[in-house]
Amino acid sequence: MTNLDEYLGGRIFNAKELDLNLQQELINLGALKTKSICQVKGERLCRRCLMKLSLKPKKYDYCRYCINLGKINTSDDLLITSSDTIFPAQEVYLNWNGKLTANQQRGVHELLNAFEHHQDHLVWAVTGAGKTEMIFPLIERALINRQRIAICSPRVDVCIELFPRLQKVFPTTTIGLFHGKSLERYHLTQISVMTVHQLVRFEKAFDVLIIDEVDSYPLAGNQMLHQAIKKSRKEIGMTVYLSATPPKEILKKVELGQITLSKLYQRFHGHPLPEPHCHLLFKEIDFLGINPRLRLRFEQVMNNQLRLMIFFPSIPVMERFAKKLKQYYPNLSFVSVSSLDKRRLEKVQQFREKQVQVILTTTILERGVTFKRVMVLVLNADAKEFSKTSLIQIAGRAGRDKKYFDDEVHFYYHYYNQQIYQACKEIKYLNRQVKK
Ligand SMILES: [Zn+2]
């Protein structure tokens, strides 16, 4: 028997992939069968991803933008399933005993207010402000209204961290985790945690859409993904953006009054953000091994049994450094991770469980991960891969625990450039706002 839940909920299918009986069954349940291209203001758009197709149809014409989700020829039909699901009422929705700070409570109040008015909202919260806890009451309100919620991030690691936290606090609600590599097959759930890419497969599906880390790669500047956010939400609904470093385009909308704003300058434990120490290195980090000033730092780390995150601009630089590290400090236990590493999650877990003392990483771990008591180093902080935003996020990995709020952050570079200057300036600015 077909499990219809695997199809329902505003999902977009290439009709030819579904057999005719199933198509008819879904149509009886309110699905719409439609052409894969639509005409809007004289433009030909792909109905699935809403990107512009060339005006002159070719013989074998297909949408190249969303081809990663399965090829759609312009001659294909799409089947868009119904999202008119009424979810069952539950006795208890939110099962969380944590306490919100006064600042978080203010943010929650503003979020719920925006929810009542179907108003898009930005939560601009410094790293470690506790923005995830702030969305719990919002999700609860939507669940009570029997609505459907999607929580999305451009980063799969962020989704994977978020999913068990939500399962724990909403134990009786159906929750799914969907991303390109997940083993879980899509099925209709009241809460869906997924990568932003997955939204391309939906149309008018969610009442509340929460986008975490909205400034992060690959969402930043990606037109298709921004379109996907727009079209996957129901017409009457709410989109929430969460960010510690919001992009200009969203701040512009705040300025124009299209999006309301909550600002949280303070970390949940009330201590300031660690301000980076800046170090100019005269020699390359790999010049005759590890730079003497860095060696002093490593001795400090070794002598005090400190845990350390070291960020690198690229995989080759990281790998070269890892070799030297092994040579100089054979007793130091460390792992290295990058976007290409298949064992990434496992290695991050090893570091979290203190099985290793040091983790070497590219910008892949710049956000969405929380460790207790770590010193953070950035090597080649002047490399183009480290934008102002990414340096702020990286510095935000330190001092997240109440007990160890003053973890140190060190930037090492050859040239003190604009991005380093701007990142340090913004962190100091945010700390000053709290004192006011
Ligand atoms: Zn497309």
TrEMBL record:
Residues 297-436 form the Helicase C-terminal domain. The keyword Oxidoreductase does not apply. One of its GO terms (biological process) is DNA replication initiation. Keywords: ATP-binding, DNA-binding, Helicase, Hydrolase, Nucleotide-binding. Gene3D superfamilies: P-loop containing nucleotide triphosphate hydrolases (3.40.50.300). The keyword Translocase does not apply. GO terms for molecular function: 3'-5' DNA helicase activity; ATP binding; DNA binding; hydrolase activity. InterPro entries: Helicase/UvrB_N, Helicase_ATP-bd, Helicase_C-like, P-loop_NTPase. Residues 112-264 form the Helicase ATP-binding domain. SMART domains: DEXDc, HELICc. Pfam families: Helicase_C, ResIII. This is DEAD/DEAH box helicase family protein. It comes from Candidatus Companilactobacillus pullicola.
